[in-house]
Amino acid sequence: MAASCSLMAQPAMAEKVVRWAQQSDIPTLDPYAFASTPALAFQNHIYEGLVQWNEQLEMEGALATRWEQRDDTTLRFYLREGVRFHNGNDFNADDVVASIARVTHPDSGIRGNASSIKEAVKVDEYTVDIRLSSKSPIALNELSGILMMDKEWMEEHRALEPTSMSKGTEGYATNNTNGTGPFRLESRRRDAEMVLVKNADWWNGDQAQHNIDRIIYKPVSSDATRLAGILAGEFDLVSDVPLQDLPRLEKEKRVEVMVRPSLRVIFLSLNMADELNAGNVDGKNPLQDRRVREAMHMAIDREAIVKKIMRGMTDVANTFVAPAIAGFDAERGVELGYDPERAKALLAEAGYPKGFKLAFDCEQGYYLNAEQWCQAVQRYWARIGIDSSLNVHPRSVYSQIRDNGRTDVAVLGWANLPLYDAYSINQQLLHSRDGGIYGAFNIPRFKNDTIDRLIEQSNTELDQQVRADLMGEVLALAQQELPFLPLHFEPVAWATSDKLSITQNPDNVVRLWYASLN
């Protein structure tokens, strides 16, 4: 009996399990609810798009085997046959049509990531036309972030319409999944644990690079607990290591530390609407004056923040995009260095010699060391007379405060994913809000007619050099106006056990379907 029990236990003991810890939970499993890199990274283990970025960040087919440009506004996709969703339903053109309708719905939380997509039309069971709003150079980039869902499953669970984190809506797809990807959801306990298991029927199983049977994802808010867990071998991957802990981890033979610059720029977003949440000054919102915005930027010692709080592991950001993003031009960046005396003079010149009050809201457990640099910014502003009341919130609360304009200063990180293109920031942050595809994250309520025109022109420009020039011009103009104050490039900081082999890319997307356990 003992020998029999031992033999029976062997498969479980041989199971290859990756234990993944991160500071905060994935707030939703609905792939159309929230434009977030961590959410995207997790959901891509479960769901797949027609196309995808591979491990080398090259575009390739996923649920589509090939595609062709039929005319200026039509892309025809030939779907992979024999693919099944996790519940056994077949994947076909009906699912693509329903998914595109859902993601382009006005209430979709990632509607801005599908700005060029108009609709999908079924040609036959495994052929579908994606119709564009106009000719577009970035349609494939956008489709890489549109993950395909099962029409029958959505109908069964009344999930044909999307949910939105910004609007605080939830539905069946918030906590339940049914994808075609390499892993399927086994269980979810919000803010405690999620378990994914290998999809034994994955269409790409014969070519799979990973050897992982199970992924256990744990949100662990305590930095000390995550550090202790990776040191004790309780975790195999910590994908947001506090920078101050890296030197200690580098001394451990059983731990590999992975640090590199990312594509994400960290910003402060300023409320440029007619009314301040903290109350106007003599009937005016001071943040509408560019001199005030310049003063606020000059008052922040960003070099000190990078050196002390970010441990010198990144650089000050003087541009709205990272160097790897098309449209980047270092020579046309923000040229305002730390100068508190000049900042005071600008405030006085603008008519606010005694400063003013602001509501300041920061996010907990998402951006590296955010609470520390938010507190530092608050202190710098106090030195020039700006009294900012700082409040820190978890993401589930913070998103609704920030995205609905219920604060005067918010924090925001933007990596231009899944497009890997400056059109992302131009279209979603810098174009004025139109209630449709433009300005979804224009939190400041910034409006510049010239910038709007240039963005719309770049949207249909197929000549890549002309298009890059247009995007660069948009960024240069916006950087002069400072609706967002750039702080620094957020570094990617991971720690893994020596058993896990995984590639780290600057997009900070964890791709465990390319990883392996020794």
From TrEMBL:
Record bears the keyword NADP: no
One annotated GO biological process: peptide transport
Q: Name one GO cellular component term.
A: outer membrane-bounded periplasmic space
Similarity field: Belongs to the bacterial solute-binding protein 5 family.
CDD domains associated with the record: PBP2_NikA_DppA_OppA_like_2
Keyword entries, A-Z: Signal, Transport
* Solute-binding protein family domain span: 59-432
Q: Identify this protein by name.
A: Peptide ABC transporter substrate-binding protein
Compositionally biased, Polar residues: which spans?
A: 164-180
In its UniProt entry, the species of origin is given as Zobellella denitrificans
Residue spans making up a coiled coil are none
Tell me the segments the record calls region Disordered: 164-184
MF term (GO), any: peptide transmembrane transporter activity
